[in-house]
Amino acid sequence: MGLRLGLLITLISVSAGCGKSVGDSCSNNSACGAGLICDLSVKDGYCTRSPCRKGECPEESVCVDFGVEASWCMRRCDNGQGCRSGLSCVSGDSGELSAQCLDDLKSCQFCGIK
Q1: Please, are residues 102 and 67 in contact by the beta-carbon 8 Å criterion?
Q2: Which position has the higher pLDDT, 74 or 3?
Q3: pLDDT by residue (tens digit) across 13-63?
Q4: Are 23 and 46 in contact (CB under 8 A)?
Q5: Distance in angstroms (rounded) separating the CA atoms of residues 91 and 3
Q6: What are all long-range contacts of 95-101, with beta carbons under 8 Å and residues at least 24 apart?
Q7: In which order are the strands placed within the sheet that holds 100-101?
Q8: Claim: this prediction has a pTM higher than 0.70
Q9: Confidence band of 80 (pLDDT split at 50, 70, 90)
Q10: Start-to-end Cα distance in the chain
């Protein structure tokens, strides 16, 4: 009995860690990891968290304030690398978008739509 319980707990722990991350594609909220939602306004969906504040987003992401659009956790990228197909590595602080990075970074680049 004790071995079965241990196996069950291990299986639950492993399956809980299999959720998607910020920036992954999704079709509904349950397709994203714990605490994330699926933004269907992006083609193929976008796992994210909203609203967010400075320092609240998962490690692979950054909190970006889009003004009246609210704030969203967006997947970090670097010089055009690190985004899934269909998304671009953009910088809100440089004027490409009307967005402001809330986290203290030298360069705030994230995967989004140009």
Answers
A1: no
A2: 74
A3: 333 445 799 999 999 999 999 999 999 999 999 999 999 999 999 999 999
A4: yes
A5: 51
A6: 97/66, 98/66, 98/67, 99/64, 99/65, 99/66, 99/67, 100/64, 100/65, 100/67, 101/62, 101/63, 101/64, 101/65
A7: 71-75, 61-65, 100-101
A8: yes
A9: confident
A10: 56
> How far is the CA of 112 from the CAs of 3, 88, 104, in angstroms?
46, 5, 19
Nearest to 44 by CA among 76, 88, 86: 86
Task: Please state, in angstroms and rounded to a whole number, the distance separating the CA atoms of residues 25 and 69.
Answer: 20
Comparing 86 with 4, the larger pLDDT belongs to: 86
Q: Which two tokens stand for residue 32?
A: 């994203």
